[in-house]
């Protein structure tokens, strides 16, 4: 999840000439404010994120961080282990953590506002898509849930918003936030159940069974599509198109948000699907075909040259052009 994934993506997009012409423009964004982030984070967690650094990770602050699943930049944090944290190594204390959260969340907010103002038909923030972050803690490399922030911004303008998640992991925290909201439908396609070859138990985060469909006013608003490891292009397409097509027909959303986590690609270091870049991008092309305001976000992806190739190609799909397989000079050839 190193931010260089996004730098590499941007370099590829630029090297193919996609930033110039094609109806593409670059938004000038600002970091999300503390007030804006307070709408998705509880007070104690927000203050922790704002003030936490590798240098002050000690005492009470360390205790609070561990409770919220954030640990020090060590190979192993004994206090986190003693406290029973299952996913703690995923969320390290890094220098500039608060600034990082503000900037990627600000990008998603700017993209949502561009759609809401009708200035853009499609808006992209590949640094966003942090679908595991909760109101009171970090999870799965995600500290602040920019998706929830963006969807809420879209709801200011659009009565119904559809969220589609094609990351290999279940979009659990987005589902939780909108589980009782009839204005939002959250559809997640993800690996579920045991890992390949026995592995080490349930595939993270272990949620997103087919029977989990929302509750209260939001019942049947969170359809989940759990899939076994090894899913390929043909199988994914067979599930994706009819399900999303029916969701579009029944729910009739006015705006679409898509989390394009690239860890569902073949060869990912964590995911166990076998999608090609073209197969992954066909999902973006299908949503684009409905001609609704569309927000594209990043997400997971742990073989970073694959991630950059995928998101570069999906940028081309978004603007309706084709790019050659031959990669031009982009400055990251060593990847």
TrEMBL record:
Pfam families: Hist_deacetyl (PF00850). The active site is at residue 132. A divalent metal cation binds at residues 167, 169, 263. InterPro entries: HDAC_I/II, HDACs, His_deacetylse_dom, His_deacetylse_dom_sf, Ureohydrolase_dom_sf. The keyword Nucleotide-binding does not apply. One of its GO terms (biological process) is epigenetic regulation of gene expression. Residues 2-316 form the Histone deacetylase domain. It is an enzyme of class 3 (hydrolase). Its cofactor is Zn(2+). Its EC number is 3.5.1.98. Substrate binds at residues 90, 140, 302. It catalyses: N(6)-acetyl-L-lysyl-[histone] + H2O = L-lysyl-[histone] + acetate. GO terms for cellular component: histone deacetylase complex. It comes from the Eukaryota. Keywords: Chromatin regulator, Hydrolase, Metal-binding. One of its GO terms (molecular function) is metal ion binding. PANTHER family: HISTONE DEACETYLASE, HISTONE DEACETYLASE HDAC1-RELATED. Belongs to the histone deacetylase family. HD type 1 subfamily. This is histone deacetylase. It comes from Brachypodium distachyon (Purple false brome). The lineage of its organism: Eukaryota, Viridiplantae, Streptophyta, Embryophyta, Tracheophyta.
């Amino acid at each position: 999840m190193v931010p260089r994934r996004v730098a590499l993506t941007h370099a590829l997009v630029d090297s193919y000439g996609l930033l110039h012409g094609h109806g593409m423009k670059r938004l000038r964004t600002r970091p999300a404010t503390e007030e804006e982030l307070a709408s998705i984070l509880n007070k104690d967690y927000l203050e922790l994120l704002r003030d936490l650094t590798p240098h002050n990770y000690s005492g009470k602050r360390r205790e609070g961080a561990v409770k919220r699943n954030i640990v020090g930049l060590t190979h192993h944090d004994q206090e986190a282990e003693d406290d029973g944290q299952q996913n703690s190594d995923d969320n390290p204390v890094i220098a500039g953590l608060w600034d990082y959260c503000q900037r990627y969340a600000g990008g998603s907010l700017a993209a949502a506002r561009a759609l809401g103002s009708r200035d853009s038909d499609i808006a992209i923030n590949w640094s966003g898509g942090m679908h595991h972050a909760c109101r009171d803690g970090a999870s799965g490399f995600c500290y602040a849930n920019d998706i929830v922030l963006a969807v809420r911004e879209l709801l200011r303008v659009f009565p119904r918003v559809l969220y589609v998640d094609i990351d290999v992991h279940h979009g659990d925290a987005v589902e939780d936030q909108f589980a009782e909201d009839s204005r939002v439908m959250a559809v997640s396609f993800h690996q579920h159940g045991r890992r390949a070859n026995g592995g080490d138990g349930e595939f993270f985060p272990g949620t997103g069974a087919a029977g989990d469909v929302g509750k209260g006013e939001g019942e049947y608003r969170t359809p989940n599509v759990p899939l076994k490891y090894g899913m390929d292009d043909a199988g994914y397409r067979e599930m994706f198109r009819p399900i999303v097509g029916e969701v579009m027909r029944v729910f009739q959303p006015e705006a679409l948000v898509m989390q394009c986590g690239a860890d569902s690609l073949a060869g990912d270091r964590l995911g166990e699907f076998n999608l090609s870049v073209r197969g992954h991008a066909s999902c973006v092309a299908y949503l684009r075909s409905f001609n609704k305001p569309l927000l594209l976000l990043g997400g997971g992806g742990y073989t970073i040259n694959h991630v950059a190739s995928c998101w570069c190609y999906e940028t081309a799909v978004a603007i309706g052009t084709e790019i050659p397989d031959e990669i031009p000079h982009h400055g990251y050839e060593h990847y």
